Amino acid sequence: MESPTDSSPLLTLRSVVKVYGEGEAAVRALDGVNLAVHTGEFVAITGPSGSGKSTAMSILGCLELPTDGSYLIEGVPVQDLAQDVLAALRNSRFGFVFQMFNLLSRTSALENVAMPLVYAGVPARERQRRAREALALVGLAGRENAHSNQLSGGQQQRVAVARAIVNDPEIVLADEPTGNLDSKMGREIMDLLSRLNHERGITVLMVTHDPNSAKYAAREVRFHDGRIVSDDKQVA
Amino acid sequence: MFTSTLSLAFSALLRNKMRSSLTMLGIVIGVAAVVMMQAMGRGATAYVGEAISGLGSNMLIVIPGSVRGMQQSSLGVPLFTTGDLDAVRRLAHDVSLVSAAGSRITRIVAGPYNRQVTISGVAPEYFAIRSWGSASGRLLNAADERQAATVCVIGQTVAEALYPGQDPIGRELRVRDIACRVVGVMEPKGASAFGMDQDDVVFLPYSTFSRRIMGSDRVQVFMAAARSPEVIEDAKSQITSILRRRRHVLSAEDDNFAVRDPRELQALLQSVTGMLTSVLAGVAAVSLVVGGIGIMNIMLVSVTERTREIGVRLAIGARAFDILNQFLIEAITLSALGGVLGIGVGLTGAMGVARLIHVPFVIPTLATPVAFGVSVLVGIVFGVFPARRAARLNPLAALRYE
């Protein structure tokens, strides 16, 4: 199931086990997962609910650590890193897109997009400039001052994508990005993600249970009961 | 980074204006109480200090009657005689000046005007004891006293009331049936420590006063000046022992007179305001603690409400420290703002009261920054717990929080 490329992988899961709870109530969300993702890939992670795909995504995004096994970013094991280093990794190398958009309410689109730059220590004026650029890239130039409640679902998700890419990450992790959108808006977001993948070389990992969205990815990894049951690389 | 955290705190607080202002109220009340009490206490002390220094620097007042604490009774107690005064003048080494003083409230008449005033009979030394000079004309002198002359010196208020737009010197003033000639006008002195107008007064030679108005040579009250401020206590004990002997007070008995030092009043006032301040400081401390708990409560609510926001912030790269900072600065902003408002309310209130009761307005230069510091401290102390709770959230659990 290893990728055919001979360069070393960007992200690697090695026999990853994730257990939630203890004793009788313990749930094995991931049960020995091996996965390698190379730079520039567009991977769809699919599977029924409870199959472990969201857990895998959280581990890949450094939001939690594996119970057993290891997760390596460019060969560096993540469990050895300090909390603040993980925060810095999430800030500079990953961008997150959530199903629920997760924009701050009563905050302008521009401020939402600029937020990762605050934690990166970018000066205020530079933050403004880069946030404007990112909003323009997702087709929302002119809506900088709109608050989330003044935007449609699709527009909110595009603001979220702009927030994910504003700090020039190598990897975008999208958790059901089209799950709360109608099919037309969903297509817009998928077009946007594949454009980022093709034009900017950003590695995209996307959890989805929508076959139409999964088709945009060049590779589909299917989870079932905490294990990977298939890993298909389609010919684009 | 700090300015953006601060502006974040302000926008978060502005989002819930009502809630933020109610939360601040406890701090506002506590700080306002302390600042106002301090300002008023300082104002009152300054006012009394001024009034007392206006009495004359080394002055002692001797009054008949026994004194216990604040109570004084002169019932059945003999007045002083001129012999008592002579004895004090001769025998008390540390007393430089002695003057009898008597007073009566009487109606006086000058031309078309009349007025109810305090008539004081005083010896020439009185003016030196009180370090009070004349603004025009002359003071009463030894010859006036010896001859029981019908001359008088009037205060500024009397001069303005009875001789408006005229020079009172040389004019006639009728005190009951005595026609006096005005020989001088006193310098203005203002209100006394008890708020009485000290310029609403007419001075007669003591001899004239005792013979023509009192009809007795007994002395109601007398004043003495110590040689210097250092020997006031010595002067006091010398006067006491001379008077005890002359008034035949047995050694087991209490004094049937009292030697008063006006500075005692100042000390008394200071101890009263000091006590009031400490009582209010206690009230303020309770108010600040209650206010602090209010802040903690609201911050805990805020952390819970914004769990998802915290999750998003952690996901996009905020460190635990950044989250801690955000909520701590929000709590401090809340309490510091309450402190600033409290200082404003306290000073405005004190200024209003000072204007109302004609007391100088003094800004408490120590209490104001201390009150601000304490309100910031309250923010830190009561903000740390909610902020730590926010910073310790698990990013994934926070993101999924409903």
Number of alpha- plus pi-helical segments of chain B: 13
What is the N-to-C succession of helices and strands of chain A?
EEEHEEHEHHHEHEHEE
Give the averaged pLDDT of chain B, no decimals.
87
Placed side by side, the strands forming the largest sheet of chain B appear as: 4-5-10-7-9-8
| Helical residues, percent of chain B | 55-70%
Structural class of chain B comes to alpha+beta
Helix content of chain A: 25-40%
Largest sheet of chain B: 6 strands, mixed, barrel
Biggest beta sheet attributes of chain A? 6 strands, mixed
- State mean pLDDT of chain A (0 to 100 scale): 91
Separate helix tally of chain A: 7
Question: How are the strands of the biggest sheet of chain A laid out side by side?
Answer: 6-7-8-3-9-10
Instruction: Give the oligomeric state.
Output: heterodimer
Q: What distance lies between the first and last C-alpha atoms of chain B, to the nearest angstrom?
A: 30 Å
Number of strands of chain A: 10
